[in-house]
Backbone:
């Protein structure tokens, strides 16, 4: 059970096509074993993806690879991918998503990968699945809820550990209310709360519109006048959820590195250090 003030500590970070120099740089900042999620890029080859995961592993970090179900063209492509990731980078965790493309192959959604992908046989021990605090722009709320229940049940049936990874939001109160509703429904699995790492306001607006995160844009814009110069960080979200303590269960930050991977890594590490009571005690002595 989460204790008050511990929210910021056990964080994860998401990277889009990081190069060797970026991985080396964040390895000097992040705690060993930090989960680094590697996004699914359509133009990325399997060799490049496995190589990136291997560099993350070699750097002392834990690679967690996105698998986009609808981008798997043939049944044999999934075991080939898993074998490469396991063999080259000892990947044991995945984030299984549908992928926002209309065409589908043998796996039309994330649920089908969980049910039919033989992930445990490939050495996968834990998976993350996506959730949406502000809803999905293309999927009705009742369908989202039913799909979440089905994915949780399927993961348990397959003997997989499970966590949720949320889309980013800019509304501290909205995220808090969503987490409380989730727990009230009896969903107790760990949640990695998506939030944008520090970046410029125009960049945040661009990513928010692209990802369909519109409900909390007004909250972001309410502080726009003071944020036009310099970068905007998720301070208010971290503070609000840190104060919530047990009310939100097992939940921790998942940072999207829109403003740069190294800067996001530094922000996350500093926020985690500030939440450490032993560090605070040492600083005050």
Residues:
């Amino acid at each position: 059970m989460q204790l008050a003030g511990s929210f910021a500590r056990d964080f994860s970070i998401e990277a889009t096509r990081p190069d060797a120099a970026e991985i080396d740089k964040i390895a000097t900042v992040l705690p060993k074993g930090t989960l680094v999620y590697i996004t699914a890029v359509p133009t990325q080859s399997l060799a490049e993806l496995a190589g990136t995961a291997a560099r993350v592993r070699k750097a002392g970090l834990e690679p967690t690879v996105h698998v986009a179900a609808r981008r798997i063209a043939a049944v044999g492509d999934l075991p080939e991918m898993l074998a490469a990731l396991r063999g080259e980078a000892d990947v044991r965790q995945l984030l299984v998503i549908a992928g926002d493309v209309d065409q589908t192959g043998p796996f039309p959604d994330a649920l089908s990968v969980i049910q039919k992908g033989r992930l445990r046989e490939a050495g996968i021990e834990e998976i993350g699945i996506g959730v949406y605090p502000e809803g999905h722009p293309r999927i009705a709320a009742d369908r989202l809820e039913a799909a979440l229940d089905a994915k949780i049940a399927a993961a348990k049936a397959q003997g997989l550990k499970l966590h949720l990874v949320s889309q980013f939001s800019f509304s501290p109160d909205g995220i808090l209310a969503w987490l409380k509703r989730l727990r009230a429904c009896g969903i107790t699995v760990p949640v990695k709360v998506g939030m944008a790492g520090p970046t410029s306001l125009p960049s945040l607006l661009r990513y928010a519109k692209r990802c369909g995160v519109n409900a909390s844009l007004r909250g972001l814009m309410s502080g726009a006048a003071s944020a036009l110069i310099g970068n905007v960080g998720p301070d208010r979200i971290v503070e609000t959820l840190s104060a919530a303590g047990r009310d939100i269960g097992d939940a921790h930050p998942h940072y999207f590195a829109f403003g740069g991977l190294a800067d996001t890594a530094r922000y996350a590490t500093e926020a985690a250090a500030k939440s450490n009571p032993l560090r605070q005690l040492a600083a005050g002595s």
The mean pLDDT is 87.
